[in-house]
Amino acid sequence: MKQRIITGTIFTIAVLAIVVPAYFYPVIMLLLSFIVSVVAIHELVKAAKNKVNDISVAISFIGGLLGFLPAVTWLCGGSAAEAMTLYALCVLTYCFVTTMFPPIRKEDPDAIRSGLAQSLIIIYVSFPIACLNTMALLIQKGWFFAVLGLFAPWISDVFAYFTGVCFGKHKIVPHISPKKTWEGCVGGAVFCSVLTAVFFAFVMNRVIDVKIPFAGFVALAALFGFLLSVVSQLGDWMASSIKRMVGIKDFGKFMPGHGGMMDRFDSAFFTLPVALGLAFVVLLGV
């Protein structure tokens, strides 16, 4: 536990060292996006090769760069909606070609599975990264939404852990995460909901010219906070399922007590798209 706390503290400081300056210079967020993309794709490809051999690291890395298309849109003076539309069109086209290439290249009954696995890895990483870059570069005060998407999973996880330790009795997904309980799941969701509402009431309400009634604004934030916690835990279970499927304990080892990049960002990959959705909803009312 001591090692886990030390590593977690160092990791959080490192992330903050990028995220905080990005408030003043949004382009800095691309550095975090790049580091997470490269390491996460490497870890996923390495894990997938335990079950599927014919996966190209180069093709996967190129696909991961599609998450940076919002930066291209930003340079061209486009909007957030245009950025995500461009990303969707490009990633679907790229993944279609990627999926079909292995079975066309050689006669192998498992080739289509290799193509699908590679495409899923590309979408798994590039979609949340595209959402993060869109919020940082193309959304009004999008930095706050990006921070919400990045840190809500860790807040939810901390409160879910302590609630589960104190009150947890009923297992929720024992075949995936034996220690997860319904009590911890609900506790994490409630605390995340409350803290998100407080964050929006005292921070967001002052930095954005909100025309939504204050009570409705806070209620909307609480609802999204609850949703962020739920999808955060779904992201954690998804990653745990993948690890069990390929027979590994952690995606990486460079963070003692925590694993790899995917072990830290598996939940954020699910919450970042929700945070972008919240940004669009709020902006429609401002």
Taking the sheet with the most strands, its summary is: none
> How much helical structure, as a percent, in the residues?
over 70%
Strand content: under 5%
The total tally of domains equals: 1
Q: What is the number of beta strands?
A: 0
How large, in whole angstroms, is the Cα Rg?
Answer: 19 Å
Class derived from helix and strand content: mainly alpha
Mean pLDDT: 86
Poorly predicted spans: none
- Judging from the principal axes of the Cα atoms, what is the shape? globular
In sequence order, what are the helices and strands, one letter per element?
Answer: HHHHHHHHHHH
DSSP helix count?
11
Distance between the termini: 45 Å
Descriptive overview:
- The chain has about 290 residues and is mostly helical.
- It has one domain.
- It contains eleven helices and no strands.
- Helix 6 packs across helix 11 (about 270-285) and helix 9 (about 215-245) packs antiparallel against helix 11 (about 270-285).
Compact overview of the structure:
The protein has 286 residues and is mostly helical. The chain contains eleven helices and no strands. The chain has one domain.
